[in-house]
């Protein structure tokens, strides 16, 4: 089983050297977020992840959640770990001080989320879903709702969920049927069935606050007629059951330690949050954060698998180097000497470390949105998040799953055996490409809504960031990164226009191009962050940093990314520009040859 070690040094490098966290926190007015405080938080969070959560990773997979008479029992140790988590004050890090939180920036909480997620993804989903519920109530709740629910969610005494989809509608929420009828006391009776509710029922907290989409009696059809409600499992005043019952939990490929519940709302008392019929708009506060959280799962899978594969590759002896024995005193060389094993390890390293930089950057944009920044700064941050959120979610889960499979591949046949723990990472990671919007849905959102619908304006916010970086790094030692990066981001805008022109004649061109467009966008986006890491490393070496070997390894990894990973974008460009015809010309009745 991989022994998780918190990558504290790499987290510090990403925060301070690459993203300038100290300056960032000063700019947004978060003076309390000093480097000493952040380092202490990361250090203690790392210990909790290593010592408490990581040992429960395999336990959760083997035992799974137990369902009996509507009650869910989590795997051994999960409940006790959650109590430690609450006692340590971790749920309240970024919570509003008016409601019991510590008031630190969201980006610091994201670092803790990484540590928790990588050590034990299934466990981390229980508090992880609460975070989105907190943001939704904070953004749209009344003062009474905040005092009742937000305080308990921030403290961690209660957990939260998001209840969107139903058996018949999947991603198409315009088809949902759950009803909300007004009561005499201005509350609502919520009736309906919700499926795939992560952490929907468990024994780890005193209460569960469900954020539920439902329709008012006079609501228009489609997505324009959906409202949002707070529906607690137990009445917060009396503690009585609120007619929310768990009908079953799913038997799944992975994340066995997290209960994925079918929830039945049988006239449960709920409370409207936000304006009537604008529930989907309000829910996007929750969903966007959840999508960044799911992006973290892709990055975490890559990191966890890399941490398992690297020591194995150093120890496992098999064959000799093609150039001659590297360790002649041994009966064979460690497999890390072989180019193909290095290809797999370096790909994992690129995805995990590049993904970390992308997610932390997005978290800083969330900080700006929540801070007292100017409206212009907030507008830019909102646009950047609009483009980068679907890229982070879709691209990092796709490549994170690839990295998990590569880790299993490094082990050869042993990777397929449960005792090594590598196949569990693959099974746990697979769901990340499905929930919070599949890769196809995220790709349509990126190309259709964020890029073409704005005539490329939102994309230009991001390409301008890349442009400024290239302009400011016109130095010889950076040329191996700057020249290709400039070429890729410039052609990004050029072929976007080509896809847009095709789509004006045939809307199917958007769907035909979208996934390859997203993958191209992801590879170029990560190229920017690897160039930024190379630049930060050169600067540190020039400034006389002691651990030059660490910084040189970053530059070498960036070089691998540019030579071996970034060229994948070319094939995605060729595919997306090939048009929709080859996809659409076969009649649906002709798919089968039976």
Any chance you could write out the topology, listing elements then pairs?
Blueprint: H1 8-18, H2 21-27, H3 35-53, H4 56-63, E1 66-68, E2 71-73, H5 78-87, H6 106-119, H7 121-140, H8 143-155, E3 158-163, E4 179-182, E5 188-198, E6 207-214, E7 227-232, E8 244-249, E9 260-272, H9 279-315, H10 339-370, H11 375-410, H12 422-430, H13 439-452, H14 457-472, H15 479-505, H16 508-542, H17 548-565, H18 568-576, H19 581-584
Parallel strand pairs: 3-6
Antiparallel strand pairs: 1-2, 4-5, 5-9, 6-7, 7-9, 8-9
Could you please describe the fold and organization of this structure?
The chain folds into three domains: 55-88 and 120-277, Butyryl-CoA Dehydrogenase, subunit A, domain 2, CATH 2.40.110.20; 282-442, Butyryl-CoA Dehydrogenase, subunit A, domain 3 (Up-down Bundle); 443-583, no CATH class. The protein is built from 19 helices and nine strands. It has helices spanning 8-18, 21-27, 35-53, 56-63, 78-87, 106-119, 121-140, 143-155, 279-315, 339-370, 375-410, 422-430, 439-452, 457-472, 479-505, 508-542, 548-565, 568-576, 581-584, and strands at residues 66-68, 71-73, 158-163, 179-182, 188-198, 207-214, 227-232, 244-249, 260-272. Strands 3, 4, 5, 6, 7, 8 and 9 form a seven-stranded mixed sheet that branches. Strands 1-2 form a two-stranded antiparallel ribbon. A hairpin with a 2-residue loop joins strand 1 (66-68) and strand 2. Helix 1 packs across helix 10, helix 10 crosses helix 17 (548-565) and helix 16 (508-542) packs antiparallel against helix 17 (548-565). The protein is globular. The model has no long low-confidence stretch (mean pLDDT 96).
């Amino acid at each position: 089983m991989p022994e998780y070690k918190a990558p504290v040094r790499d987290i510090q490098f990403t925060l301070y050297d690459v993203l300038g966290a100290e300056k960032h926190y000063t700019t947004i007015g978060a003076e309390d977020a000093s480097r000493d405080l952040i380092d202490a938080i990361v250090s203690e969070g790392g210990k909790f992840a290593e010592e408490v959560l990581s040992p429960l990773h395999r336990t959760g997979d083997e035992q799974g959640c137990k369902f009996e008479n509507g009650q869910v029992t989590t795997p051994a140790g999960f409940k006790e770990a959650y109590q430690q988590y609450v006692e340590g004050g971790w749920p309240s890090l970024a919570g509003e001080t008016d409601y019991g939180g510590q008031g630190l920036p969201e980006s610091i909480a994201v670092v803790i989320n990484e540590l928790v997620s990588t050590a034990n993804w299934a466990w981390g989903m229980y508090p992880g879903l609460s975070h989105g519920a907190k943001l939704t109530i904070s953004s749209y709740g009344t003062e009474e709702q905040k005092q009742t629910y937000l305080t308990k969610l921030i403290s961690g005494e209660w957990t939260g969920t998001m209840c969107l989809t139903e058996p018949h509608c999947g991603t198409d929420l315009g088809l949902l049927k759950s009803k909300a009828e007004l009561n005499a006391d201005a509350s609502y009776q919520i009736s309906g069935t919700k499926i795939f509710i992560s952490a929907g029922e468990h024994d780890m907290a005193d209460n569960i606050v469900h954020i539920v989409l439902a329709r008012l009696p006079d609501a228009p059809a489609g997505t324009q007629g959906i409202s949002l409600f707070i529906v607690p499992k137990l009445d917060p005043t009396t503690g009585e059951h609120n007619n929310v019952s768990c009908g079953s939990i799913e038997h799944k490929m992975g994340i066995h330690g997290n209960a994925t519940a079918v929830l039945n709302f049988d006239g449960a008392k709920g409370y409207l949050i936000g304006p009537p019929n604008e529930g989907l708009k309000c829910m996007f506060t929750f969903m966007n954060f959840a999508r960044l959280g799911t992006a973290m799962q892709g990055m975490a899978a890559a990191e966890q698998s890399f941490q398992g594969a690297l020591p194995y590759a150093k120890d496992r002896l098999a064959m000799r180097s093609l150039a001659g024995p590297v360790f002649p005193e041994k009966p064979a060389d460690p497999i890390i000497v072989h180019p193909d094993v290095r290809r797999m390890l370096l790909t994992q390293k690129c995805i995990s470390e590049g993904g970390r930089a992308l997610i932390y950057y997005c978290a800083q944009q969330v900080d700006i949105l929540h801070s007292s920044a100017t409206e212009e700064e907030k507008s830019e941050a909102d646009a950047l998040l609009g483009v980068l959120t679907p890229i982070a979610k879709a691209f990092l889960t796709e490549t994170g799953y690839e990295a998990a499979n590569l880790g299993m591949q490094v082990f050869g046949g042993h990777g397929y055996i449960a005792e090594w723990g590598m196949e569990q990472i693959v099974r746990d990671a697979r769901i990340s490409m499905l929930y919070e919007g599949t890769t196809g849905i995220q790709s349509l959102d990126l190309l259709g809504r964020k890029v073409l619908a704005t005539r490329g304006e939102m994309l230009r916010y991001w390409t301008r960031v890349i442009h400024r970086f290239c302009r400011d790094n016109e130095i010889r030692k950076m040329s191996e990164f700057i020249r290709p990066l400039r070429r890729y981001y410039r052609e990004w805008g050029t072929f976007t226009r080509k896809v847009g022109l095709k789509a004006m004649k045939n809307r199917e061109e958007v769907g035909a191009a979208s996934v390859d467009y997203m993958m191209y966008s992801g590879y170029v986006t990560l190229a920017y962050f690897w160039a930024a890491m190379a630049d930060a490393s050169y600067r540190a070496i020039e400034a006389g940093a002691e651990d030059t070997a660490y910084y040189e390894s970053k530059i070498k990894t960036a070089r691998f990314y540019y030579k071996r990973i970034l060229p994948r974008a070319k094939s995605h460009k060729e595919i997306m520009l090939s048009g929709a015809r080859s996809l659409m010309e076969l009649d649906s009745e002709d798919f089968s040859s039976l």
